[in-house]
Specification:
Elements: H1 12-20, H2 30-47, E1 55-59, H3 65-74, E2 80-85, H4 88-94, E3 101-105, E4 118-124, H5 133-140, E5 142-153, H6 158-175, H7 178-194, H8 199-223, H9 231-244, H10 251-278, H11 282-294, E6 297-307, E7 312-322
Parallel strand pairs: 1-2, 1-4, 2-3, 4-5
Antiparallel strand pairs: 5-7, 6-7
Helix pairs in contact: 1-4, 1-10, 2-3, 6-8, 6-10, 7-8, 7-10, 9-10
Length: about 325
């Protein structure tokens, strides 16, 4: 990492784990992805009009979702497209998108750029994690005549409610110690296969695992199999597949799978907690608006983005502009 350590960057390892995984490709439900795409396309079409400077930075950029929309609108035109994120794993992914992209591993609270360095400053479900100072910092980067656009987690919105359910379900599975107990069963199972322990010891370990397995199944009955992005049902399927064919797997391979699954599930819960904590409520929104206006931006938009069959509010949208003078 080129940015501060995890003691300074709370939860950084959660996001490094996330951006190294394939989970990022399924971050949003299709309806929300479509609504966000329409918003960003319209925004960039306005800001990237012919003759306008193509100089933008996306704060807490993740793997470049907003930057992709910017590049699509910009077409073949050259410009400066910067993605900043405190996760080096996220920044590394940017290089595979387009050679025009520049990735910077840094905190959104202290971007290493001069005042007014960008014609466009954006963030999608990211800047709200960085702390109150990140909004003043974002406004500082907006050039005269430039614009700031933010899509933020909305307190009690559709995505918030989905995350809350997923966290509750995940915490139930973690509290039941499904994966640590499975690891014990696997280890003893291999001992039995090697003849170093007897079947009775394995039956005792299986008896300890059974309540955790039943807890996970009950969690799925109450929350639905799609909860937590299908992670819990996937875990049960994976564990069952390995255990019923234990001889087909090398012990180190099977035990490493359990250990990695436990690490990833804990990281997932950490990200969900961070998302819920970062969600913008009315009081926080008022503070953000005051910061942006005090920094010289005039708000053009302050509302919610809706998505899904029920047209549920899913994101808080802020768009501000700086006078060209």
């Amino acid at each position: 990492m080129t940015s501060p350590d995890d003691a300074v960057r709370p939860g950084a390892t959660y996001w490094d784990t996330y951006w190294r995984s394939d989970e990022a490709s399924t971050l949003f439900a299709p309806a929300l992805r479509e609504a966000l795409g329409a918003f960003w396309t319209a925004f960039f079409e306005m800001r990237f009009a012919p003759g306008a400077p193509l100089k933008m930075i996306d704060l807490a950029c993740g793997d470049g979702d907003v930057l992709r929309h910017a590049l699509n609108v910009a077409g073949p035109r050259s410009g400066e497209f910067v993605g900043l994120d405190y996760s080096a794993a996220a920044v590394k992914k940017l290089s595979s998108i387009d050679q025009r992209l520049v990735g910077i591993a840094a905190s959104a609270e202290s971007a290493p750029f001069d005042d007014g360095a960008f014609a466009v400053v954006t963030s999608q479900f990211g800047i709200e994690y960085a702390g109150a100072g990140a909004f003043t910092e974002a406004a500082r980067l907006v050039a005269p005549g430039g614009a700031l656009a933010l899509a933020m987690h909305l307190d009690a919105g559709a995505l918030y409610n989905e995350c809350r359910s997923s966290l509750a379900a995940t915490e139930e599975v973690l509290a039941a110690r499904l994966l640590p107990l499975t690891g014990s069963v696997f280890r003893i199972g291999y001992d039995v296969l090697r003849g170093t322990q007897g079947p009775a010891t394995l039956r005792q370990a299986e008896a300890l695992l059974r309540p955790a397995t039943e807890q996970a199944k009950d969690t799925l009955r109450r929350f639905g199999e799609r909860v937590a992005g299908g992670k819990i049902v996937g875990l049960l399927q994976g564990l069952g597949q390995i255990y019923t064919r234990l001889q087909a797997y090398e012990p180190a391979e099977a035990l490493r799978w359990v250990e990695n699954a436990d690490t990833e599930l804990r990281a997932y819960a950490g990200r969900l907690r961070a998302m819920l904590d970062a969600a913008v409520d009315d009081a926080t929104l008022a503070d953000i608006v005051a910061e942006l206006e005090a920094s010289g931006l005039a708000l053009e938009r302050n509302d919610t983005l809706s998505a899904g069959p029920g047209n549920e509010p899913a994101a808080r949208i802020l768009v501000g502009v700086r006078d060209a003078r």
